[in-house]
Specification:
This protein has 2 domains: 49 residues, Phosphorylase Kinase, domain 1; 168 residues, Vaccinia Virus protein VP39 (Rossmann fold). 27% of the residues lie in helices and 31% in strands. The strands form 2 sheets. It has a 7-stranded mixed beta sheet with strand order 8-7-6-9-10-12-11, sandwiched between helices.
Length: 226
């Protein structure tokens, strides 16, 4: 059984036998696996299981995320895209009319991402440091969402710097906060509050913070609006 999510376009729920429901996205490139994800075929369509153990946004949705800004046809700036596991599901959702600009500083990882982007067509891999948003200003256009997953002490600063350059008015900032990267001496909840205050101080409205345990301990997703 497969049902579209009632709130989030492009997101699906698949019931396989008597097992628990699985989150999924419809494969933009049938026959192509972007990593080692499970693929389920239903009525001639391919759906890719979106595991909360492998992707923080998937964990946030399962943990009760109320607003998910990734929608069909939008433009995304993805900071810390790595080899494209989560980005491939974003790619399914935004579809052929959308685009994802993926920033990654590690050359080896970018080489892996290139194969995914070549097949999917809507991911632009960019070898650069997200700390220097001006370095890719000739490639990246204004976007609807800036999503950051960079496990650095200044991860919130990195998000805000990029939002100031690339995020449209009324756009959304989304960050996967790794508490132990910011301050290992403080409880995670306190670190999340610190991140919220910093984002608010930059002029953004916090929509929701979702802790990701048990899928990702000491991690939370924060969604904010400009």
């Amino acid at each position: 059984m497969i049902k579209p999510d009632q709130k989030f376009p492009g997101v699906f729920w698949i019931q396989i036998g008597r097992k628990k429901r699985n989150l999924a996205t419809k494969n933009l490139v049938p026959g192509f696996r972007s990593y080692d994800e499970r693929v389920v075929r239903v009525k001639g369509e391919e759906y890719r299981i979106w595991s909360p153990e492998r992707s923080k946004p998937a964990a946030a949705i399962i943990k009760g995320l109320k607003y998910f800004p990734i929608r069909p046809g939008i433009k995304i700036l993805y900071l810390g895209i790595a080899s494209g596991t989560t980005a491939s599901h974003f790619s399914d959702i935004v579809g052929k009319e959308g685009i994802i600009f993926g920033i990654e500083v590690a050359e080896r990882v970018v080489r892996e991402l290139i194969d995914v982007s070549a097949a999917r067509k809507n991911i632009v891999p960019i070898l650069a440091s997200a700390r220097s948003p001006e370095s890719y200003i000739n490639i990246v256009s204004m976007v609807d969402v800036v999503y950051a997953d960079v496990a650095q002490p200044d991860q919130v600063d990195i998000l805000i710097k990029n939002c100031k350059v690339y995020l449209k008015d009324g756009g959304y900032a989304m960050i996967a906060v790794k508490a132990s990267s910011i301050d290992v001496t403080k409880p995670p909840k306190e670190v999340y509050k610190m991140a919220e205050r910093q984002i608010r101080g930059a002029g953004y409205e916090i929509i929701q913070t979702v802790e990701l345990a048990p899928f990702d301990r000491k991690h939370a997703i924060i969604v904010a609006r400009s």
